[in-house]
Amino acid sequence: EPEVTQTPSHQVTQMGQEVILRCVPISNHLYFYWYRQILGQKVEFLVSFYNNEISEKSEIFDDQFSVERPDGSNFTLKIRSTKLEDSAMYFCASRRGPDNSPLHFGNGTRLTVT
Amino acid sequence: QKEVEQDPGPLSVPEGAIVSLNCTYSNSAFQYFMWYRQYSRKGPELLMYTYSSGNKEDGRFTAQVDKSSKYISLFIRDSQPSDSATYLCAMKGGATNKLIFGTGTLLAVQP
Q1: Which residues of chain B lie closer than 8 angstroms to A43, CB-CB?
Q2: Contact B44 A91 (CB under 8 A)
Q3: How large is the average pLDDT for residues B84-88?
Q4: A47-87 per-position pLDDT tens digit
Q5: What is the mean pLDDT of residues A42-51?
Q6: Which of A9, A66, B48, B101 can pair with A43 through a Cys bridge, CB separation 3.0 to 4.6 Å?
Q7: Which ranges of chain B does DSSP label H, i.e. alpha helix?
Q8: pLDDT above 90 (res A97)
Q9: Could you write out the DSSP letters of every residue in B10-31?
Q10: Mean pLDDT of all residues belonging to chain B
């Protein structure tokens, strides 16, 4: 069964450093998302991406964050200058099409900012 | 009032029991309702996906949506130790496509 894959599984970085989290969505999917889950808290929406542009973003997704689909398969989340509070699991997700298609998640990248 | 409320548990049941997991919500615009299972340090895995009110069954799992009460449920029949995980409800609707998650209920099925 096709799946969303994310790399790396764990990333440790120092405060102030840039980090790029990578995702390969399911191949025939058109809508892409990033969510995050701080330890012990809810899964929360960051950003959605369709047709090479951001379609929606949350208040968490400030100027330090950016997303890109650099080629036909990868979808990346960049954090420009990481803060301690960015430590979380970051999940990439994708869905095939319109509203009635479900969202499929990857296994996440655990980001630790020291 | 929180948009989606879910009892965090933990819920501990013996193997073979029927498990009932629930969420309530406040936003009447929600139309799509999902249940995800999440094992420790893994991503949410889609279990059930329903639109509007009604029941949906898939093997040992049944999802129920009651929009009039703003209440959704997931039932697991003949629970197995491998069902031990955190169960997340999620929903969306209205002008946004983002999913709103509950806090998750931690389930332990004892052999």
Answers
A1: 44, 88, 90, 99, 101
A2: yes
A3: 97
A4: 999 999 999 999 999 999 999 998 878 999 999 999 999 99
A5: 95
A6: B101
A7: none
A8: no
A9: -EEEETT--EEEEEEE--TTEE
A10: 93
The 10 Å Cβ neighbour count of residue B8 is 12
Q: Of all residues in chain A, what percent carry a pLDDT higher than 90?
A: 83
Q: How far is B59 from chain A (nearest CA, A)?
A: 19
Cα nearest neighbour of B50 on chain A: A100
DSSP state of B75: E
Under an 8 A CB cutoff, do A105 and B45 touch?
yes
CB A28 within 8 A of CB B78: no
Question: Closest-CA residue in chain B for A110?
Answer: B41
Residues of B with CB under 8 A from a CB of A: 32, 34, 36, 41-46, 49, 51, 88, 90, 96-104
Is-cis flag, bond preceding A8, omega within 30?
yes
